[in-house]
Amino acid sequence: MEKSSEKNTSAFTHLSTLSQYIIPFGNYIFPILIWSSYKDKSEFIDHHGKQALNFQLSLLLYTLILALIAVPIFVTVFLQNLPIEAVFNDDDFVIRNFNLEGNIGLLSIGATAVVLFGLLKFVEFFLVIYASIKASNGELYKYPLTIPFIK
């Protein structure tokens, strides 16, 4: 049975990844600081620290892949439609010379990548909360679809 301090530290390691919403790269900095401070003192904290970091690194990789799919598609479609002529009439705003014909398939792929990114961030939030609850209960937890970068 893990000590209460080990459970709290492990739960806090998972929760520290949520600092990304306040501090850039906080989802990497704070778990690394906590994990590196306690990894030699407790196997339980070591396990949860590795899991939190591996999950964040996996999400980074998935995000980069989705960005490499979506960004070039949107830029290409935009550049194919230059020059764009915008006209302001009395109560209307009309964009002329912008033609999506022939690009719907590409735009569907780009939009799918954007939706998958949003879904990834939504699921991340709840998995971090779930992992911290498991850690605070003294259970070992492994995030799904995580690549074991740190073993």
From TrEMBL:
Alphabetized Pfam families for the sequence: MamF_MmsF (PF09685)
Keyword Membrane attached: yes
Transmembrane spans: 20-38, 59-84, 104-133
Membrane topology: Multi-pass membrane protein
Keyword entries, A-Z: Membrane, Transmembrane, Transmembrane helix
Compartments, as annotated in UniProt: Membrane
Superkingdom, natural source: Bacteria
Name used for this protein in its record: DUF4870 domain-containing protein
Species this protein is from: Flavobacterium johnsoniae (Cytophaga johnsonae)
